[in-house]
Amino acid sequence: MTMRHWRSAFWLGIYFIIATGPLLAMLIEPPPGRGFWREFAVGLGFAGLSMMGLQFFLTGRFQHLTTPYGIDVVYHFHRNISLIAFVFLFLHVAVLLSASPDLFLLLAPASAPVWMITGLISFGAFIVIIITSLYRLKLGLPYEVWRMIHGYVSVLAVLLALLHIIGIDYYTEGPVKRGIWMAMAAAWLLALVHVRIIKSCRMLRRPYIVEEVAREHGRSWTLRLRPDGHGGMDFKAGQFAWLTLGRSPFAITEHPFSFASSALEQGSLRLTVKELGDFSSRIGATRPGTRAYLDGPYGSFTIEGRDAPGFCFIAGGVGITPVMSVLRTMADRGDRRPVLLLYGSNSWDDVTFREELESLRQRLRLKLVHVLDDPPPDWTGEKGRVTVELMAAYLPENRMELEYFICGPAPMQKAIQKAVVKLGLPPENIHSESFNFV
Question: Is the pTM of this model over 0.85?
Answer without folding.
Answer: no
